[in-house]
Write the structure tokens for this entry.
Amino acid sequence: MPPKKAGSALASMVYNPGDLIFAKVKGYPHWPARIDDYDPETNKPASKKFKYPIFFFGTHENARLTAAEVFPYEEYKEKYGIQRPRAFFNDGLWEIENDPTVLFRKEDEEDANDEDDDESAVSSTEEEEQKPTKKISKKMKGKSKSKKTNAANNSYSSDDESDNENPKGKTKKIDDG
């Protein structure tokens, strides 16, 4: 029988909300992170398929990872807690040491919802002011789609009265009324 991998012991660990960890995501170094809020009674963290809600320090992004992708912070601090020339990683190392409760979901979720409501009211008004209004001339309203497309390509334009020919060379009739 082959020897058990060290990771299998980690995969059976149970983490609680607020636990500091290093989280491994493919393509990234082991990142300083925290187990975010979840209800251990309704969720079964002992299950191998269970994915913990993870908060990444430095980037403030969230993900869901299995216990096999999570490493206890204190045990692996010397191995993974090394400064790196990667954006936000060093910020994450600083935050996990000096401000480990930054944006803890349980407390900040209510505040974020309140802020989102206020911001969405302001941003929707700003968006309406910034959106350019597209006015369609009376001549173009009744025209077929193909003529509108050609008008966009400047090969046939109903607004240009000096050019009275369509792409096929036939003369078009312009109504001034």
Q: What stands out?
A: Helices lie at 6-11, 73-80, 89-98, 105-130, 138-141, 145-152. The first strand starts at residue 20 and ends at 23. Residues 1-5, 119-165 have pLDDT under 50 and may be disordered.
